[in-house]
Amino acid sequence: MSTIPKNNSETVAHTPGRASSIGVWILQVVLAAIIAGGGISKLAGDPVMVDMFADIGAGQWLRYLVGALEVAGGVGLLIPALAGMAGLGLVALLAGATITNQFVLEQSPWHPLAFLVVAAVIARARWSRTEAVVGTLLRR
């Protein structure tokens, strides 16, 4: 004799895939807000950001580039088909931020490193969509 749930809400509520998908979406929204907010402050010319990039010594063009990449990455995290690729791009960007904080600015690398880990989790969780998008682009 098999046991059949009396209604579908019992099976949906206990599905681990759904809970993890919701968790990843929460990570995506939070990371998107943090990263895009930082990008907007770089693009807007926040004096703290201008001074930080002056300390880096690569020129203000790098502030604009990083700001644009951060805004693009934040927006990409919110688009289901692009979330995995945005996560991968942010992993690369945040690796650079971690190294820059540690060795150039001589600041703690923990914030960008923590964001890097979250971006990597998102990239891994959305890997199947990333493969699908890349496959579609390669077939063209």
From TrEMBL:
Q: Which UniProt keywords apply?
A: Membrane, Transmembrane, Transmembrane helix
Q: How does it sit in the membrane?
A: Multi-pass membrane protein
Q: Does the keyword Transferase apply?
A: no
Write out the transmembrane intervals: 21-41
Gene Ontology CC, one term: membrane
* Protein's cellular compartments: Membrane
Output this protein's name. Answer: DoxX family protein
Q: Which organism is it from?
A: Kribbella capetownensis
